Amino acid sequence: MPNITLNKLDSLRAVLRGYGSCLVAYSGGVDSALLAVVAHEQLGDRMLAVIADSPSLPRRELSEAKLLAVEHAIPLHILHTSEFDNSEYQSNPVNRCFYCKHELFSHLKPLAIDRKMSVIAYGENVSDLGDWRPGAEAASKFEVRAPLKEADLTKDNIREISSYLRLPTADKPQTPCLSSRIPYGQKVTPEKVGMIEEAELFLRDLGFNEVRVRHHDSGPVAKIEVVPEQLSQLREEETFQAVLASFTRIGYSEVQVDEKGYRRGSLNPSEKMN
Fold first, then answer.
1. How confident is the model at residue 264 (pLDDT cuts 50, 70, 90)?
2. CA-to-CA distance for 83 and 22, rounded, in angstroms?
3. One MF term in GO for this entry (predicted)?
4. Is 97 an annotated catalytic residue?
5. CA 263: distance to chain centroid?
6. Distance between CA atoms of 181 and 162, rounded to whole angstroms?
7. How far is CA 136 from the centre of its chain?
8. Beta carbons of 96 and 188 less than 8 angstroms apart
9. Which domains, from first to last, does the chain contain?
10. Which DSSP symbol is given to 126?
11. Residues above pLDDT 90, as percent of the chain
């Protein structure tokens, strides 16, 4: 691993030691997994990882996050959040993530006080700057820290360090919440995200690891995004017929393939980079 990245890892360790104690918002994704592992390495029982469990978190993601915590002896608390009871979240505005993170941090704040944790931290990093991240506004409101960003870590740095530490998340694809598959302005419901979860699980079991199923209400229609190099595999007659049969059983009346392939944030508003 390059010295500059090793130096950033040392910086992250120093940042976390400086906190004294830390409650980590943990999902098991590449960013929060590294944060939780290094926080535990530096703080021991003066840290606590907290998973927000709701319908928008795939069950497989929850299981993998719990397993990683067990393997690294990370203290873990599962918090059941209620963003789906919030009409503002359900209406799915362009800043939907604000309401989700607000719900999470509003529970983490008293938990941190109760557990005598001086800092709440989450996995924002330097590569997130300039991206569409309304959740960062909620983090600012609750004074949540971003140690990965404070240590100047990019997404590539995080993957390099994760590989160096032999974490299983080093090459893990991005896994945003299931609600992100529903176009803004179309209502978010547990039933819809349940359909999305089942559809994506089927595709992943076929070998499509970087995949999104965009759920459109008219029908409903499932629009599949896979990485461009796997488009031909998805178009194979036998594969697509299996997908069509599975998605029909799930409840979709039409299945489309996005010919542009998977790209991050394809449903984000065009003004996100302003």
1. low
2. 24
3. sulfurtransferase activity
4. no
5. 15
6. 27
7. 14
8. yes
9. 3-164 (3.40.50.620), 178-270 (3.30.70)
10. G
11. 91
Report the distance separating Cα 32 and Cα 209, nearest Å: 20
Q: Do 19 and 145 touch, CB atoms closer than 8 A?
A: yes
Average pLDDT over residues 88-105: 97
β partners of residue 52: 79
Q: CA nearest 212: which of 155, 263, 259?
A: 263
Q: Is the confidence at residue 272, as pLDDT, over 70? A: no
In contact, 215 and 222? CB cutoff 8 Å: yes
Residue 273 has pLDDT above 60, yes or no: no
What tokens appear for 258 in the block? 């996005």
- CA 226 to CA 208: how far, in whole Å? 7
Catalytic option among 22, 97, 100, 177: 177
| 96 burial type by CB count under 10 A (0-12 exposed, 13-18 middle, 19+ buried) | buried
Tell me how far apart the alpha carbons of residues 138 and 212 are, in angstroms, rounded to a whole number.
Answer: 26
Q: How many helices (H) and strands (E) does the chain have?
A: 11, 7
Q: Inform me whether the pLDDT recorded for 27 exceeds 80.
A: yes
**Number of residues that this document lists for the chain:** 274
Strand partners, 121: 24, 145
- Rounded Cα distance between 186 and 72, Å, is 40
Q: What is the pLDDT of residues 112-148, one digit of tens each?
A: 999 999 999 999 999 998 777 888 999 999 999 999 9
* pLDDT tier at 249, thresholds 50, 70, 90: very high
Strand order in the sheet with 22-25: 76-80, 47-53, 22-25, 119-121
Tokens representing 167?
């974490």
Residue entry with tokens 């089927």: 202
As a dihedral over the C-alpha atoms of residue 254, residue 255, residue 260, residue 262, rounded to 10 degrees, the angle is: 130
